[in-house]
Design the sequence.
């Protein structure tokens, strides 16, 4: 399954839509107007909550994103690793996940229990951050979208710190 989402060029909340190859709406990403942690909500097309994604407010060296379920239970902690490549350590009670990125931070492979289950790619020529998510295990679709949003949050947070 292939999904797409792009950050809007101008938005106060950071909201966007996740669509499939036929431009059919699959999820909403709802942002908040003002938040230090870039909190976003992944919702079904009907507006039902799926996950909450936010950055960790305090961090020492590595930017961290957190994914919560509807009961506010932490499902995943995604933290950068000290490597030349853009790779991330993932802590989760849902399984043994790993995110391996390329040197530029444009392409990411997601593994669960050493099996590749998704590929996230940032579109190179675009005015806004645009992501293409290729998912091999469709039952992991909502979580893979949440992980893509988490990676985008980390990237935005790093970009903000550099200016």
Sequence:
């Amino acid at each position: 399954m292939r999904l797409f989402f792009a950050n809007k060029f101008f938005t106060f909340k950071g909201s966007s839509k996740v669509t499939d190859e036929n431009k059919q709406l699959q999820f909403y990403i709802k942002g908040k107007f003002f938040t230090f942690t870039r909190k976003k909500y992944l919702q079904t097309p009907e507006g039902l909550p799926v996950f909450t994604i936010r950055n960790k407010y305090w961090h020492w060296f590595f930017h961290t994103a957190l994914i919560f379920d509807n009961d506010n239970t932490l499902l995943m902690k995604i933290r950068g690793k000290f490597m030349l490549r853009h790779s991330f350590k993932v802590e989760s009670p849902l399984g043994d996940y790993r995110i391996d990125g390329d040197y530029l931070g444009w392409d990411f492979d997601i593994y669960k229990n050493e099996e590749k289950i998704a590929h996230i790619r940032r579109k190179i020529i675009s005015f806004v951050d645009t992501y293409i998510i290729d998912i091999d295990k469709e039952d992991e679709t909502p979580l893979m979208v949440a992980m893509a949003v988490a990676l985008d949050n980390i990237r935005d947070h790093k970009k903000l710190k550099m200016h």
